[in-house]
Amino acid sequence: MRGRPAFVIGCVLAGLILAMAAVSLVWLPYDPSDTTGGRLAPPGGGHLLGTDKLGRDLLTQLMVGARIALTVGIGSVLLGAVLGVTAGLLAGFASDWLDDALSAALDILIAFPTLLLAMLVVAAREASLGSAVLAIGLAMSAIVARLTRVLVKRVLAQDYITAARTSGTSWPRVVIEHVLPNIWPTLLVNLSLQLGLAVLAEASLSYLGLGPPPPNASWGRLLQEAQATVLTAPLGAVAPGVLLVVLVVGVNLLADGFRDLADPTRRRSR
Amino acid sequence: MTLLDVAGLSVRRADGRDLVRDLSFTLGPGERLGLIGESGSGKSLTALAVMGLLPAGMTAHGSVRLAGTQVVGARDKELDRVRGRTVGVVFQEPLTALDPLMRVGRQIAGPLGRRRGLRGAPLRAAVAAALDEVRLPESLARAYPHEISGGQRQRVAIAMALACEPEVLIADEPTTALDVTVQAEVLSLLDRLVAERDMALLFISHDLAVVADVADRVIVLKDGSGVESGRTRDIVREPRHPYTRALVDSARALEGALDRLAP
Predict the structure, then answer these.
(1) Which positions in chain B touch A264 (Cβ < 8 Å)?
(2) How many domains, in total, are found in chain B?
(3) How far apart, in whole angstroms, are the C-alpha atoms of residue B121 and residue A244?
(4) Which domains are delineated in chain A?
């Protein structure tokens, strides 16, 4: 870890949000729907960060928000990774026409705006945590699939694959021993970056009212609700915004660190 | 006994153009055949076609019998078995021939373990022996490919190719990417190993001097066709085809330049 301040800062920032979410599972200052705090109470006193316009404790809302941000972020990355890597491997190995067909499908999916896709999903299902994960995960899977496909094609063109095939290694073994390990570092970095993007996408959806509905206190919805009172109680808008930035920056710094850890050629040359 | 029997081999691109045209040769135990030609003459494609590993979009026509098994048109599954025990290959660029994310020892252990069914301590000992055979220290097993020199990488690639105890070794420009001094070391190493194991050697190069050093017979390839073939000595002494003559002349010219400078 020495000599990698960026990675350490990333750990601290992302860890902070993770800790908030973890604590929220076992302890919250107030009940999330407790409105007895008085409208827009200033920070201090019984409410460390004050209350919102409905009298709910802001710290409580932020902690629940951290949990939602991480749930949607990690959930959609898992969904996007499973779907994307599978489709990408398929396209990478596929014969000409199947590869072409998959690539065309991916290009269409990528050209489709995430928010529009999310609206369709919400319209077809309902505004919920699951819908947000599904919409963001689907949009992400296309990007992951395209990246995986290119990475697979590049690895397959290498001599060590031909050498392995010559020594009688079967395709499944080649994938497990050579292809996956060699595309993994790049994929991991990309998936970490996608985690940051997914958190932002969830905030956008919630801001537009397409995310998890109340009483789920998503940061995006906190931002939207605090919009009207931003001049009288700025903390209500600033706090979720700051946490959003902390999480996304932390995750992005972690992504860089992962790359250094996963790639032995970088590990030692630093 | 013929280990490799190539008859009327053509390699066709998807658009119908032949990149290798009607090539025939045979290779028995202990025989050394050189394939010589310029870039794009179809040397490497010939090697890939022999192993049944042509890139997507290219098809082989004719007949390639590898230890009695027809390679052209065979299914991958059948070939996996034949390839593993019959043929080993060493490539031009040792850096891309090794998996960059796998320690050298594990890369040698892979084919070694599969071929001889070894695990654990006996496998480690076999890896050490394989490294020793190519004159590399056992400690190198823990290194990643980027941590060792080009010559060492090529030795590792040779150890990997030999781990399956192949009867046919295909060397595709194995010394082209190396320094001249390292080139000589790797050539003599190959020479010794092929002789010791009585392997058949298919040696591919654009360098006549290198081929003359290693191969007993040569085929001169130009634009995918064999324009001349025969014993190396005869071809170097009396080249008949104009292209072969040009090859011999330019090799002589280089040698002459050295001789003139010698005291």
Answers:
(1) 100-101, 144, 146
(2) 1
(3) 52
(4) 7-25+49-269 (1.10.3720.10)
